[in-house]
Prior knowledge:
Blueprint: E1 3-14, H1 16-24, E2 36-42, E3 45-51, H2 59-66, E4 70-78, E5 94-98, E6 101-111, H3 133-148, H4 156-171, E7 174-181, E8 186-189, E9 195-200, E10 205-207, E11 214-216, E12 226-231, E13 242-243, E14 249-253, E15 256-257
Helix pairs in contact: 1-2, 3-4
Amino acid sequence: xxxxxxxxxxxxxxxxFSFEGFSARxxxxxxxxxxxxxxxxxxxxxxxxxDQKSSTTSPVADLVKRYPIKSTHVIAHIRKATQGAIALxxxxxxxxxxWGRYWVFAHNGNLEGDLQALRTYPTDRYQPVGQTDSEQAxxxxxxxxxxxxxxxKPALGxxxxxxxxxxxxxxxxxxxxxxxxxxxxxxxxxxxxxxxxVRQAPFAAAHLVDEDLTVDFxxxxxxxxxxxxxATLPLTDNEAWTKIQPGELLAFRDGVLI
Length: 258
């Protein structure tokens, strides 16, 4: 299956260190070599890079490693195809507009069955472009949210139970690990494997699992910085990552689990 990487923080931060290790799993230290993508929120804008080439052979991935884009919300994905051809339109993360905001979604897993049967609304605004179950699920989530809140984005306390409800329904179709964000709130749902770590003062050094690379975050941060990193499997071997329990839907904001 695919792998996920996300970052949510209280100040714009680059993800170069984490992406260096994560991208190695796209064909060198693991076999997720059927495309990749990454999205950075910058204010209300969203900068997205993707390629159907593996993240270990893609010149676009090399650019992302060298270009320290700073963001408070990042979602990345490396693909191992289960549904849909190896093609650009099937690369995650997917992006759509809702309530005048961009929403970005990436999925790890496989959903089988007739997802289209869940389309119960008379007008369906969101339609998949590619052939993946993942994009179908994303469109269904947005349609459900738009139906419940047609005019404007609700408060998190109102949005969360509706998102949890459609998530639980989609999870009955198979494995449904995902990351979902609009650059304000950041959601992570675990079906099988998803882990997170919150880095904050006192910062220490971290060493990647997939590359022989160490960074001392105390030299790059201020005492008020706070960064949550979410990944399918831990990216470092000298830090304590927390495993998200199957069925849990977590919300992060400003690097804090809320």
